Amino acid sequence: MKTKRLTQALERVESWPAHAQDELAEIARNIDESLGKGDYEPTPAELIGIDRGLRDAAEGRFAPQPQVDAALAKLRGA
Predict the structure, then answer these.
(1) Number of domains in the chain
(2) Are 77 and 17 in contact, with CB atoms under 8 Å apart?
(3) CA–CA–CA angle 5, 36, 53 (5° rounding)
(4) What is the 3-state secondary structure (H, E, C) of 1-60?
(5) How many CB atoms lie within 10 A of CB 20?
(6) Which helix (H) or strand (E) holds 70?
(7) Domain span at residue 40?
(8) Confidence band for 78, pLDDT divided at 50, 70 and 90
(9) Cα separation, 22 vs 4, whole angstroms
């Protein structure tokens, strides 16, 4: 069983370059492994990124919308 959102995401992934598909596959593999282990434990690098993001949010530092749009366009291969 797949959720509607997962089905839609997988349809888009098919048009991604191979390296991006491999990166997503690695993320999915990590999630799958963690499901069998109980709670997910972020890596030290992920914890640093989480802390940085929380600190930035607390300080009201967010990317401007044009920068967000450009990053999303790049991820979508546009």
Answers:
(1) 1
(2) yes
(3) 60
(4) CCCHHHHHHHHHHCCCCHHHHHHHHHHHHHHHHHHCCCCCCCCHHHHHHHHHHHHHHHCC
(5) 13
(6) helix 65-75
(7) 4-75
(8) low
(9) 22
CA-CA distance, 63 to 61, in Å (whole number)? 7
15 phi, psi to nearest 5 deg: -95, -5
SS3 call for 69: helix
For residue range 11-49, list pLDDT tens digits in order. 999 999 999 999 999 999 988 887 877 777 899 999 999
Q: What is the pLDDT of residue 46?
A: 95
User: Tokens at residue 38, please?
Assistant: 């109980």
pTM above 0.85, yes or no: no
As a whole number of angstroms, the distance between CA 12 and CA 62 comes to: 27
> Burial, 16: exposed, middle or buried (Cβ in 10 Å; 0-12, 13-18, 19+)?
middle
pLDDT, residue 50, reads: 95
